[in-house]
Every structure is written in structure tokens, then in C-alpha cells.
Amino acid sequence: MLLECKDWDKKGQYIPNIKTSKTALYDYFILIRVSPSVEDILKNNRLFFSNFIDKDNLEKIILSSDEPFSFDIPGYMTHKTLLYLIHNNYIIPQNNYLNSLNTPMDADNYYIQAGSLRNIDLLFRSLDN
């Protein structure tokens, strides 16, 4: 899970929302992985860097994918975990690589590995009470 450093202050507040009526503090962060990658679908159709895509055309392209869509939820983290990442400098710096030499980071990011996230069932149980 990656969160751009420039978007978060030292209190774990989402900076773009601090001066708005929207909340700047989030209690939970849930990682959901979707397959196929919508980014890949857009790149394959030469639309990834487009500034505008007609909604109907976008829907048609995404829904015409040969691969059926699926998802998994590796887990979640709390606001307290975000503060831990911030204060302990869990950062992948800009221009470093993620997973391979094909994926350079375009910005500094706080990170937590999917295997270190809490089991999503724990969150469901806590919200059920």
C-alpha cells in the first residue's frame, strides 16, 4: 500500500481536506486489488494520458475487457499505523524502483507491505459490534 508523502501531514491528516468541510482524518485504510488493471486497459487503448475521455466510451472500453474483473482485499491498517509509518520514515523515495526496474516511483510514498496489513475480517467483526 502506497500513500504519497506530500498528501499527509505529521498528524496523519489528509492535507487536501484540511481546509475544507471534508474530513482530514481517516480511521481505516483498506487495500483492494482489482484485476485486470484499469491502468493497463487504458494504456492498451492509448487513453492513459488523456485529459478527457467520454464516459460512455470509457465504460465500453473497460467492460469489453477479455478478462473478467475480480478483486481481493489483502487487509487494512488504522490511522495509528499510518502515524507509525510517518514517524518511522517508511518511505520509498521518488525515482527508486518498486518490484522491478519497470516501475520507478514518481513521488515519495509512505508504504506498508500487503502481508503486514491486518486481516480484513478483524475490521468487519469490530464494525459489527
Structure report:
The protein has 129 residues and is of the alpha+beta class. The protein has one domain (2-128). 26% of the residues lie in helices and 19% in strands. It contains four helices and five strands. It has helices at 38-44, 55-63, 79-87, 120-128; strands at residues 2-4, 28-35, 70-78, 91-92, 109-111. The strands form two sheets. Strands 1-5-4 form a three-stranded antiparallel beta sheet, covered by helices on one side. Strands 2-3 form a two-stranded antiparallel sheet. The longest helix is centred in the middle third of the chain and has 9 residues, at 55-63. The chain starts with a strand and ends with a helix.
Attribute tags:
129 residues; alpha+beta; three-stranded antiparallel sheet; two-stranded antiparallel ribbon; 4 helices; 5 strands; 26% helix
List the helices and strands and how they pair.
Layout: E1 2-4, E2 28-35, H1 38-44, H2 55-63, E3 70-78, H3 79-87, E4 91-92, E5 109-111, H4 120-128
Antiparallel strand pairs: 1-5, 2-3, 4-5
